[in-house]
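Researcher: Quick one. two chains, 577 residues in total.
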Amino acid sequence: MATSFPDLIQPRLEAALQATSIGSELPEGFSPAVDPAQNKQFGDYQTNAAMVLAKRVKKNPRELAAEIVEAFDGEGLTEKPEIAGPGFINFRLQTDVLEQRVSDLLADSERHGVDAVADPQTVVIDFSAPNVAKPMHVGHIRSTIIGDSLARIARFMGHQVITDNHIGDWGTQFGMILHGWKNELDQAALEADPVPELLRVYKTVNQMCKDDPELKETCKAELVALQAGDEENLEIWKKCVDLSKQGLQKIYDKLDVEFDHWLGESYYNDALEPLVKSLVEKGIAKESEGAMAVFFPDHEKLADQPPAIIQKSDGGFLYATTDLATIDHRVNEFGANSIWYVVGAPQQLHFDQVFEAARMMGHDAALEFVPFGSILGKDRKMYRTRSGDTVQLDDVLVESVSRAKKIIEEKNPELPEEEKAEISTAIGIGAVKYAELSQYRMTDYIFDWDTMLALKGNTAPYLINAYVRTRAIFRKMGSDFAEAEQISLTADAEKALALKLAQYAETVPNILSDFRPNTLATYIYELATDYHKFWEACPVLKSEGATKETRLALCELTGRVLQHALGLLGIKTVEKM
RNA sequence: GCGCUCGUAGCUCAGCUGGAUAGAGCAACGGACUUCUAAUCCGUAGGUCCCGUGUUCGAAUCACGGCGAGCGUGCCA
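Model:
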């Protein structure tokens, strides 16, 4: 397994540091950072170690850099390093090292140079989590797509990943749904397409409740009956949940998203009362204004915030209670070392409180809140339809695929219908996902069809097109890539592409450090760009000998990495477009 | 009031642990197709990184204080 270039340079740099005049006074545990050069003119990699150290030992950074360069052994790895600017040390890889790396990558069609983590964790990822009896709207896009991508990446990195769809299948909305089911339901519509009918019923009752306080009480009574175990209501509830799950599954199928578990809120019903009891016994929770609450007097931030309420004065439980019971289950039954919550940023306080309460209960699993910003319309307000409704996720997907189809009809009308359908699905769904994942998750996202489905720039169609072009070469050639006996990098575009391919190994392991799939998106875009440049500058099939073998190898590797990296984002590639 | 997040080109956004002249795309303008898919590439233009102070050899990045926007703030999730 090949090691990334920074990991190869770093130990040699450390050895060089030891050999300098300050070798004996290096700070404990100091490890010099080796980063890709920002600008090609500076070489391939750089370190600022001389400047960092010069500060601590009060030496001139450039003089120290000179010592380091003198002591640095680049044998079989880099050219002699150069000093630049205030004391940067720039490294340039030897061409034959890069050539060897291309060969190594050709042999590594599973991992593409990326090492798995040394300490695999059992990670539960909590994402999507829609409410039952309400279709998913655009607000669920981010959680679903980001969560799925993180799951794919974590699995590839060697973690034991468990995905859990914590659906909202138990809550106050069921009061209205029960009443609606009994009084407003259109049986024929339900049989034809259950989910929209459930939504219609819910909306109708919700609207009626707004100006009818009496009805509101009726609904509440239905809810209480349900919670008390009323048989009729339980049966209706169960039916609603089943129908909704079927509807949700259709969307997940379109998105190619899978869950290992669907443990919704109702799954934890029986655990809530004992949990509260135990928290009270341990002195973690106490009675306050008629409710049971957890206070955080010793916590710097939470001390000034309201407490977390885990049982209402009427005896009912809240989502903080359920979330704590869920942590118990995930730790005790799934053996989770780590739980990631991909949930909107407004819930920051809630998770701060739940995590702190879990810590007080004795849990030491790493609990990570992975927040994201809102989806806005062009007017910078919550994205809604013209009539003011929330936009349904399925409508977005349908629209995106149909727009992609239209473009294919224009560009490539001679393709068979079946292929057109497959391509427009891949591009349409891919465009929605990529628009989401290419942006830093905390940035409020402005939903715009034209940006999302644009053919140029940092978009899914551009990236998929780069992949298609790698395949076009082999299709034209009439056979798949066989093997390359001799790799010989000469053109600048070849070297730049080879280096970028090698840097996949540096990019992927970093994504999870701050849960930023967008750093992978940036990499894919740069790779596609480097490939397109190579494509313009370096004819493949017309070249000969080692040059042809090398270029075919670069096409093959680019295709593999593009496909794999897009796969980590949950985006499919196609062979033609 | 308190807390969280954000503020970078006309527009949409990158820029993670401080590093060299702040980068892309879109839109604008100018070029390149008897060619392996032009769904591409090359070039031009575009900036008080919200403001101020501080730490540092070095700040879009860190600290503090402002300004502006969004969200959350005891019994919805």
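The longest strand of chain A covers residues 338-344.
Researcher: Thanks, that's what I needed.
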